[in-house]
Amino acid sequence: MCSSDLYMLMEFRMMILTVLLLLPVLVARAQESERYANGQQKFSGQTQGSQKVGLWTYYYQNGQVASKEYYVDGMLEGEVAYFYPNGKLQVKETWKADLLQDSAFHYFPNGQLQKKGIYKDGLYDGKWVFYEESTGKLKRTGSYFNGLPHGEWLSYDEAGELMQKGRYVHGKEDGFWQFYEDGKLTFEGGYQNGEQVGEWFQYTKKGKKKPYRY
């Protein structure tokens, strides 16, 4: 092979390599959309090849935005928001590679915060806090591990008074628990693997402690 043929072969190989490198860029984005029977927009977004990319917006039939979702290579990525038909925020979540990750906030239709916490690989993880819809007061708080309650949990009544206190281990009550009514201790005893064990006690309205048979 002469030097000119060798040069042309090298040029051809470089051209093929350049095309292959640019191929993902050359795949054009297509605008996708659909409408309800009443003519209102149902959703709009873009695809690249067969995969969703960028911002996708979904709508209710009344024209209000239902959700705003972000996609990378067909997978949910980044902050995603869902809305009630009245336009108020319902959920704000974080996604990475199509899995719920990091912080999340859920709201009641009246705008009051319902719960907040952390997701790890699509499951509840770490501390979560729950609130009452009408008053906004703390309802319960506790920790999760691999999507199951794990660690100390506290629950409160509508007045904000402590109602129960105890621990979970992998989703089941375990260890010493206490129960309250109107802020006063009423029952206490132990759990093991979700079952009542050992001695339990009941407290009278005057605070007298007596054995309780479960």
Helices and strands, in N-to-C order? HEEEEEEEEEEEEEEEEEE
SS summary, helix count: 1
Strand content: over 45%
Terminus-to-terminus distance: 95 Å
CA-based shape: elongated
Low-pLDDT sequence parts = none
Coarse structural class? mainly beta
Cα-atom radius of gyration: 28 Å
- Total number of β-strand segments? 18
The helicity comes to: 10-25%
Q: pLDDT average, as an integer?
A: 91
Largest sheet: 18 strands, antiparallel
Could you explain the architecture of this structure?
There is one protein chain. The chain is mainly beta and 214 residues long. The protein is built from one helix and 18 strands. The protein has an 18-stranded antiparallel sheet that branches. A hairpin with a 2-residue loop joins strand 4 and strand 5 (75-76). It starts with a helix and ends with a strand. The relative contact order is 0.06. The model has no long low-confidence stretch (mean pLDDT 91).
